[in-house]
Amino acid sequence: MSDLKTEMLKIKVKGYFDNGDLKADPTITALVKYHVDKARHNIETGSLLMEISRDKESKKRLKVSADYIGYDWTISCGYYAMFHAATAALAAIGIKVQSHESLIEGLEYHFVLKEIQHSIRLTQLLHKKTQKRFIETR
């Protein structure tokens, strides 16, 4: 991630916390299971709609018009499955989301940027320890 993108992401996320679109809320962890279950439900619903859209026998059995195609709703189900999965991920670390945009930026900040920074710090620490051991063994 470029330095400019990193700084812009930090500014956006700070703005979301300032305006309340993202909130630190330790009680939100209670809703993780709800959002995971909702994501799973949306995936299953999208799969059903896909099956009905493709299969003439399913349409006949369910008394759906022969020309029914539900691909647009399949896509919506997929979007909301991702939305609820991402909401669950942020809820798991105590962050409540108020908008779709803040969800995307919050997810990138907390699970991409912070993970990259954590990996860099860990690599630096391991490098220092390796150097120290190398010096001590000489």
Provide a brief overview of the structure.
The chain has 138 residues and is mainly alpha-helical. It has five helices and two strands; from the N terminus they run H-E-H-H-H-E-H.
* Spatial strand arrangement across the major sheet: 1-2
Mean pLDDT: 88
> Based on DSSP secondary structure assignment, what is the total number of beta strands?
2
Radius of gyration computed on alpha carbons: 22 Å
What does the overall shape look like?
elongated
The helix/strand order is HEHHHEH
Counting DSSP H or I runs of 4 or more residues, the number of helices is 5
Structural class: mainly alpha
Helix % is over 70%
Largest sheet: number of strands, sense, barrel closure: 2 strands, antiparallel
Q: Give the DSSP E fraction (strand runs of 2 or more residues).
A: under 5%
Q: What gap, in angstroms, lies between the N and C termini?
A: 38 Å
Unreliably modeled segments: none
Number of domains: 2
Textual characterization of the structure:
With 138 residues, this protein is mainly alpha-helical. The chain folds into two domains: 1-24 and 100-138, no CATH class; 26-93. Helices cover 77% and strands 4% of the residues. It has a two-stranded antiparallel sheet. Helix 1 (3-19) crosses helix 5 (100-137). The longest helix is centred in the C-terminal third of the chain and has 38 residues, at 100-137. The model has no long low-confidence stretch (mean pLDDT 88).
Keywords:
single chain; 138 residues; mainly alpha; 2 domains; two-stranded antiparallel sheet
Q: Secondary structure elements and their pairing?
A:
Elements: H1 3-19, E1 22-24, H2 32-54, H3 56-61, H4 71-92, E2 95-97, H5 100-137
Helix pairs in contact: 1-5, 2-4, 4-5
